[in-house]
Specification:
Elements (H helix, E strand, L loop, with lengths): L7 E4 L39 H19 L6 E5 L5 H5 L3 E2 L2 E2 L3 E3 L17 H11 L5
């Protein structure tokens, strides 16, 4: 698609791209109280946000950057992480000092105001939490 002139790409559900190489079973989620067998009944340390996921995103970023070096236009890269942990989301901008996404989509802000919020009480905190965790220049 980049050869056909696409100016950017969105990697959807990027945190699920890589699983633990040993295919380790996920542990039970001690905070879960819903019906048995639901996705949230397990914690997901072995199937989400793996270090190799960042390596793949970095490779994709390098590939897209090669188009700009060849005289083509800059190719934007967005990641769709869908993680309630802001610190996990912002890692997709850069990890280990290597650039990744131009924009890491933050769906936590999509639900503003959250149910039960009175004007400004939690909204400010959610936005401030995002801003406090963004890397410099983002």
């Amino acid at each position: 698609w980049a050869d056909r002139g696409a100016d950017g790409f969105r990697l959807t559900s990027v945190k699920y791209l890589v699983e633990d190489e040993n295919l380790t079973d996920e542990p039970a989620n001690p905070n879960y109280s819903g019906p048995p067998g639901g996705y949230d009944s397990l914690a997901h340390p072995y199937t989400t946000n793996q270090a190799d996921t960042h390596s793949l995103v970095q490779e994709f970023r390098t590939l897209l950057d090669s188009y700009a070096k060849d005289g083509d236009s800059y190719k934007i890269l967005l990641t769709d992480v869908m993680d309630a942990n802001v610190r996990q989301v912002v890692k997709y901008y850069s990890s280990n000092g290597t650039r990744e996404a131009d924009i890491a989509l933050n769906y936590d802000l999509q639900e503003l105001p959250a149910p039960g919020d009175t004007p400004g009480n939690k909204t400010f905190g959610r936005i401030q939490g995002w801003m406090d965790n963004l890397p410099d220049g983002k």
